Amino acid sequence: MVQTHRARTIAAAGILTTTLAIGGCATIGQLFGGGAPQRDDETNQVTESADVDVFQLQVGDCLSLGDDSQLSSASVVPCSEPHTDEIYHEFELPDGDWPGEEAVQQAADEGCYKAFEPFVGKAYEESVLEYIYLTPTEAGWTDTGLQDRLIQCVVYEPGDGAPVEIEGSLEGSAR
Q1: What's the CA gap between 89 and 104, in Å, rounded?
Q2: 174, 40 in Cβ contact below 8 A?
Q3: pLDDT tens, the chain, 175 aa long
Q4: How far is CA 15 from the centre of its chain?
Q5: 8-10, strands of its sheet edge to edge
Q6: Coil, strand, or helix at residue 43?
Q7: Which of 6, 32, 119, 160 is an S-S bond match for 72, by CB 3.0 to 4.6 Å?
Q8: Residue 112 burial by CB count (10 A; 0-12/13-18/19+): exposed, middle or buried?
């Protein structure tokens, strides 16, 4: 099971971001979520819509995250189909003791901000797009079977009360 947070915060640099936290036990996630998505052998892109275990998400995946407070699976689709979110970057935090939620969120914000312009083709401050991030929770960090350290950056276009549904990738969109 994955705990999600969609609390908007203002970072020190004045960047408006949203946070989703990923963590929990993989075996529990497998009970509630799907398995791995079907992918093209050459491009590794999702080829069929499916509910997949959140730990199977990869850079380039298009999906619709929604506002659930508990997330064990996510709905992925080929990027040519309607979706609201796209994973554009990921990185791992270093091993060690749990650094605390604030430190994890700060690292996520810095890493996702840095990767935003190279992916979108426009500076964050000039873009109509925003980002959120998937982060490990303390439970996922300390679970010896999981040891989740992965942060995934997700780009989307905000709308009136919900993200805008799009088709295609936002890579190089310069929006």
Answers
A1: 16
A2: no
A3: 343 333 333 232 233 334 455 444 333 333 345 678 889 888 888 999 999 888 899 999 999 987 765 567 889 999 999 999 999 999 999 999 999 999 999 999 999 999 999 999 999 999 999 999 999 889 989 998 889 999 999 999 999 989 999 999 999 999 9
A4: 17
A5: 8-10, 16-22, 130-136, 150-156, 85-92, 62-64, 73-77, 50-53
A6: coil
A7: 32
A8: buried
Tokens 């549904």 belong to 165
DSSP state at residue 160: S
Enter the DSSP assignment of 56. G
- Which of 127, 107, 106, 105 has the alpha carbon at shortest distance from 116? 127
In the chain, where the domains are located: 8-156
